[in-house]
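Quick note —
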Amino acid sequence: MVKNITLETLLTRKQQSENDKMKVFLFNSEVLGGNIEIVKQKARDIMKIMDSTDERGMEASNEMNCKIILKHCPIFKEKELQTAYGVAEPHELVIKVFDENLGEIGKLAEKILGIYGLADEKKKSNLIEEEVEEIKN
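Predicted structure written out below.
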């Protein structure tokens, strides 16, 4: 049974949205052996990053992943870390810290995208649920 949306429902949802604006998540990095803090940003920030390039391919995809990580993980904004790793560009820091493990970088970016409902795993999960519903019917 589907419930009707009421004014109270929307007001409660607004309050929950306000509480979630700067929510903190953790990513368990196998490469680094610990948790990395992820701070949720405004949705428009993630859209700007995703819209910032028309290029296709692995290099463009990896650069976008690094920008997403930089925007959401405060630890990678530390100038001291950038200096220690000897990188000129901040996105290069992500690659160096993860020892060029593109899979781990992709997993972290995927976790961040999942916060906004954009992760592939979520899409796959939804498709499976839809298929199960179709089979039941």
